[in-house]
Structures
1.
Amino acid sequence: MRITDHSAIDQTLGYRQRYRQLHVITEIHENLHTVCDQFLGLANDYKKIIYGNWIYFYTSKISDIISLAQGPMHLNPQISQAEITHDKNTIPLLNPQHQFRTYFRSRQVKEQQFKALSEFLDSNREYVKSSSGLKSFFRKYQADSSRWTMWTMDYYYVDHSDMKFVTALSLITPGLVSKTKQIVMVNKT
C-alpha cells in the first residue's frame, strides 16, 4: 500500500503468496483495494506514510480526513493540526552545514553496489553527511556480510552542498535517488 496503485497491490500480494508461501485472506485483499480507491478519490495533495498497521496521513484539507474517516473502511482518525512555516520542497534546519538533502528510494541493493556506495560516502565524509538510518544500514551489513542483497529505505538520506553528488550516487546505484530538497536555515524563536 506504499504505492497507491491497484496493480502494485496485486503484484505485492502475488509475490507474498508465491515466494513467502503466505495465504492472503480475500477480505484483506479487498480492504487494500478499498483503501486504495479512497486515496485515489482525493482531489487535494496529501502525503501518506505507512508504518506497520498505521497510516499517517498529512494534508492541508480537513475535508480529506473526514472523507477517509467516513469511507467504507470506517477509519478512526486522530487529528492533529500544525502550522507549516516553510516551502513544501525545503528542509528547515537551525544550523545547516549543507545546501541539499537527497533521499533514497526503497529498493534492493546488490553487494557490488553496496560496497561502491559505502566506499564513496566514506571517502567523501567531509563533504557529505549520511543520515543515522543510512549509517545503521552500513553497520548492519558489515556485521553480517553473508547477506548478498540489502534493501535501502525511503527515509535514508545524505546532506551535501554540491549537486554532483546526486549524479555520482545515480551512477553508483542507478535508480537509488528519489528526490533532492534544498536545506534552508530557520531562526530559533
2.
Amino acid sequence: MLTIALNEYGDFHHLGQDEEDIKTIHFIAGVVYDDMDNEQDAENERIRLDRFFRAVAEESHSLYPQGFFGKLKVDEAEEETFNPDAKKDMRIFRDAIDAALPEFLAHGTYNGEELVAMPRVGHYAIALTLKSEAGKTEYLQPFYE
C-alpha cells in the first residue's frame, strides 16, 4: 500500500533562470513509499524520515523544521520572526538534504547509521516527467506511433 507520497512541480534549483541554460526547465515529480501492506513499516518510515531530517539539520547547523521555511523562533513565548539569512540557511539545509537523500532512499540510513532499529520492509519509487516546449497540453494529447 502506498503510504507516504510527495509530489512536486516547478523550476527547482532555478535551472531555467540563466540565459545560458535551457529555457523553462520544469518537471513534475513524485516520490512514493510502498510499505508492502505492513502498517508497522509505514510507522517506522515516518519515524525514519523525521530522524533523517533532524540528523541532517543537526549536522548542517540548520533548524528543523524551520530550516525548510526560513523562519526562526527566538523564544517559545515570542512570535516567529523572519530570519534575514533565510535564503542562505535554506540553501545550506537543502544542499545537505540533497547530498544525503540518495543513501536515505536506497538504504534508510544517514551516514551509514540506522535511523530506526527495525529494517525497512518497503521501498521508494520515483516518477519524473520533464516539461516540454509545448507545455502540459502535450500530456493531454493521444499517443500515436
3.
Amino acid sequence: MTTIPSAIATEAPIRAVRVLSRSALADESTRGKVKWLMSLGDLKARRDAEQKSLLTIAQAVSRAAQQTQATVQQRADELSALVVELGLAVAREIVGAALDRGDVDPTETVVHCIRDCVHGSSESDLVVRLHPDDMAIVQQRIAAMPDLHESVALTKFVADPSLGRGEVRAATEAGKLRYDPREAFERVAAAVRNAAQGGRS
C-alpha cells in the first residue's frame, strides 16, 4: 500500500489528484471495447438508413414506372384511334371514287328487291329507283336472268338523278327499301371503331 504523507509542502493549491492503480490497463481495454461496440452501433444505424433510402428510391421508381406505363398506354390508345380514323378516311375516299366511276354494281340489290319484296294489293306496285347512269347496266344484266322476266315486266324502273351511284330505292304499297353503299360503309366503319376500342362503345 502507498503511504501518503500527512503534509506536503506546495507552492500552489492542489486542484486535482489522479490515483493510479493496477486496473488502469483493464479500464483502457474496456473503453476500447465500448468504442468498438459503439462503432458497430453507428455502422448498423448507417446501414439501416441506407436501406431505408434505397427502399424509398425503389418505391419512387416503381411509382414512376407505373405512371409511365399508364401514360404510354394512353398514348398508344390515342395513336391507335388516329391510325383507325386515318385508315377509314382513306377507305372512304376509295369507296367514294369507286362509286363515282360506277364500279359498284347495284344489280344484286335490285334482284333481291324483285325476288323478295312484299307486294300490296297488286303485283305491279314495285317501283325501283336508280341513278340514271346505273339504269342501263342494271336492266341489261337483269334481262339475262330468265327467271325474273315475268317479275321485271311488272316492275317500274325510275331514273332518279337525286340518288348517288350504286344507290337503290324500292317501294311497294307494303313498304320501302333503301340501300346506299355509303351508309353501308359508315356502318362498317362504326364496327371497326368499336372493335379497335375493345368493344367499349
4.
Amino acid sequence: MEDKQTVQEEPLTPRKKRAMVEYMGILFAAAFLLVAISLVVKVHYMQDNFDAASQGASENIEAIQRESSATLLLVQAQEAYRIGDAGAFTRCMDELSACKADLPEPAAKIYDSLLTLQTQQN
C-alpha cells in the first residue's frame, strides 16, 4: 500500500491575512496608477491629434472660401463680358489678377482665356 500524505491547509493567521491584504492593496494601487497614467497619455495624444485636425480643417475652410470668392469673381467677369459691360469686366479682371492663385485649374484656364480677350479689347 502506498503512503498517501495529505496536506492539511492551516488557517491564515491574522498577521498573514494582514500581509496578504497589504500586498493586494499595493498591487491594486500600482495597477490603478498604470491605468491612470495610460489614460493621461492617451488624452494628451488625442488632444494633439484633435488640434492638428482642427488646424487642418480651418486651413481647408479658408482655402475653399478663397477659391469660392475667386470663382465667383470669374463668373461675374464672364457675365460682364457676355453682356458687354466693359467697366465691370475690367474691374472683375483686376480683382481676379490678385487672387488667380486661388482658382482651381479649370477656372484658371477660363481666366487666362478672359485675360486674352481683355488684351484683345484694349
